[in-house]
Amino acid sequence: MSKSRFIDLMVKSMGKAATEAELAELELFLEKFPDYKRLHQLTDELKSDIPATGPVAEEELNKNLDNIWTKIKAADDAVDEQPEPKVITGFRWGWAAAAAAVLLFAFAGVFYTLSKKTPPQLVSVLMQQIKVPLGTTRHLVLGDGTKVTLNAGSTFTYPDNFDKATRDVSLAGEGFFEVTKNPKRPFLVHTNKFTVRVLGTVFNVKAYNNDKTTETTLLQGKVQVQLTNSPEKTIILVPNEKLIVVNQPAKAAAANNSKQGKIEYQVAALPDVKPEEVKETAWLDKRILFTNDPFEDVAKQIERKYNVQVVFESADLKNEQISGLLDKESLQTAMQIMVQTTPFKYRFEGNVLYLSRK
Amino acid sequence: MKHLEIKELVSFIHNNDEEAFNKLYKLLVKKLVQFAFSFLDDRAICEEIVNDIFVNLWLNRHKLNVVYNPKVYLYVSVKNACLNYNRGNNTFEKRKEELSEIHYEIQSPDPSQLLIGKELTARILNAVNGLPPRCKLVFKMVKEDDLSCNEVADILGLSNKTVFGQLRIALEKLDEALVSR
């Protein structure tokens, strides 16, 4: 009976590979040689278990678990809710193709509500593009869990998965972003006028090409905005601040004086109101909220929300300042209410809404 | 005991039991992070890797019925994720030599049950911490993570014999430390 044999047996019992006979032999060893018992006890004691989790550790575990469930939900949603994406193929779509695309999306919308689970698409191209038709909004969950809500008439381009150093998306239109935090990979929203750079925040970007201004509004966290025209300048926004960039500064400058033309952007604080009264995000609830805004701007929002074309027959009506809230009313009802407070006439001709002075 | 518990939890998870998932996470996360720490020296990345593995565990829960030994499956997942991470950074070769940095935290359990003196305890801990890296990892996995030799062999991609051999070396070193007083 050698010590070597004893160690062999211990290894086997430790590694849960010992047979009954070997375990019995080990017992015998321990009885006969009390000296060996020490090593046995010692290794037993070395078996340290996880120390009891204190309240702090427990709390942290729960926080981690919360994060995990958020990630799981995001991944689940990405599979469930991905609307039919359109792949950029590089050539220009003709009119027919564009019309077909609109039809496809309208159809996709119907199909999508009928059967919530569309199978994940096999796409070989890295970038995907989504065009939101007028009169609706779209929810998206990107590969990294970032949630995006797109307003009517927006075009949004994003990669299938974010494996580059930065997470780049581009937007023409309006989008509300809830960016998943990842300090190692900044999230960049590119628009014609500026690029918004964030790590993980909640913000709104309004960058319709046919609007007079391009805006971004920050609700949480911190964003850094770089103007396309003057890249050396970066603007940092804090929550409840809004950056407004004029879309045609050149023309405006020529019309006014050259000094004023230099002012390309302005940072404004949001009025101190309840969250549901913030103008910039009212569209998320399919509402239009306006306070002393030019009729022309409101008309743009009406066009998007109701999928109509608005034509001003009296040019000066465009600058009439109006206030109000359009919620779930039909466009007819909305117009009936609006004429009560603002002196103007309206008439519908098919899909076109004509507005004129009384 | 613990093996059965893990198997049971995993079969619950297979049937969409979120509570079982939370339990399994709390049961294993610390050990898995510790294990990942043997391959990577960045604790935050280790935690991220382990958390991602749990995310995937849930997303693939419907396929879990084909997993024969969930514990080994999780350890192997962690190891592969760590190696993949390293491949990206190409530091694994470098890291291999640094395995000796393995964090071996032995918490002496109840002191009243400790039959050896303080001085001896220190000597033993020294002996354990002085073990060659691979040997230490094997010893740690058997003792701390409650894995069998076969499982350790599966996880590390070693033969059974090697694992036994490494354990032997560990025990002999401990024995030496005990005797040479």
UniProtKB/TrEMBL annotation, chain B:
Keywords: Sigma factor, Transcription, Transcription regulation. The keyword Phosphoprotein does not apply. This is RNA polymerase sigma-70 factor. Pfam families: Sigma70_r2 (PF04542), Sigma70_r4_2 (PF08281). It comes from Mucilaginibacter dorajii. Residues 24-89 form the RNA polymerase sigma-70 region domain. Belongs to the sigma-70 factor family. ECF subfamily. The keyword Cell inner membrane does not apply. Residues 123-174 form the RNA polymerase sigma factor 70 region 4 type domain.
